[in-house]
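Saturday, quiet lab. Running sequence design on the structure tokens for the scaffold JK sent over.
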């Protein structure tokens, strides 16, 4: 268990996260980060975006590799954000579908589906920007190997050309999805003391993390 003053030296990062709009943020030892192979399994069999970006599997470190990476860090800041994007009970039934599937099932629901995912895409871009600001602040204060991650797939580009070429055209912005490398966000939130409501009632929550060496 780290001494309290060890965690307090990162208070400047927690304050920055809150100033940027986080609902809550915690400085944690990295042994509280839960990494599981079964999380990546869900990516492979339950995600329409599997393999479509260089920030998702199979183009990222495996859960086994990431466990070793996490062990090289001592602390992390784990952050919770509210998306402010609403979805009623009816719309939730369609969110896991593709656009073609929604169109075939309910043309009336398609505009709502498109609006939700457009707003979600914008939120994820904002989330990445905020996470990178926390990462940069850590780097500028003596932690050069600080590394940020966000939940969900990469939203920097409309379509990832790097899947075909193997080269990301925005390497300074690309960060791995937490789930893509095996982070169980729900279990980590619980160990961290941040409440994660799932299934979410109306507005989904979003999480991000910065590893600090």
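Result came back. Writing it out in full:
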């Amino acid at each position: 268990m780290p001494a309290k003053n060890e965690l307090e030296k990162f208070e400047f990062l927690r304050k920055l996260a809150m100033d940027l709009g986080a609902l809550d943020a915690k400085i944690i030892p990295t042994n509280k980060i839960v990494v599981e192979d079964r999380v990546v399994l869900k990516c492979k069999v339950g995600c329409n975006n599997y393999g479509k970006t260089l920030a998702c599997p199979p183009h990222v470190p495996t859960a086994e590799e990431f466990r070793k990476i996490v062990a090289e860090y001592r602390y992390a800041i784990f952050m919770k954000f509210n998306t402010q994007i609403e979805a009623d009970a009816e719309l939730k039934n369609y969110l896991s579908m593709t656009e073609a599937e929604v169109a075939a099932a309910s043309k009336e629901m398609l505009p709502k589906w498109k609006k939700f995912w457009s707003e979600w895409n914008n939120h994820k871009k904002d989330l990445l920007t905020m996470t990178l600001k926390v990462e940069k602040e850590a780097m500028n204060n003596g932690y050069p190997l600080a590394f940020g991650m966000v939940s969900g797939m990469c939203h920097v580009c409309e379509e990832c050309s790097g899947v075909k070429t193997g080269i990301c055209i925005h390497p300074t912005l690309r960060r791995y999805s937490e789930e893509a490398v095996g982070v169980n966000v729900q279990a980590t939130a619980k160990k961290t003391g941040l409440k994660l409501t799932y299934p979410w009632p109306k507005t989904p929550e979003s999480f991000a993390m910065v590893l600090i060496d």
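Notes for JK: The first strand starts at residue 24 and ends at 29. The chain has a mean pLDDT of 91. Ask whether to fix the surface positions before the next round.
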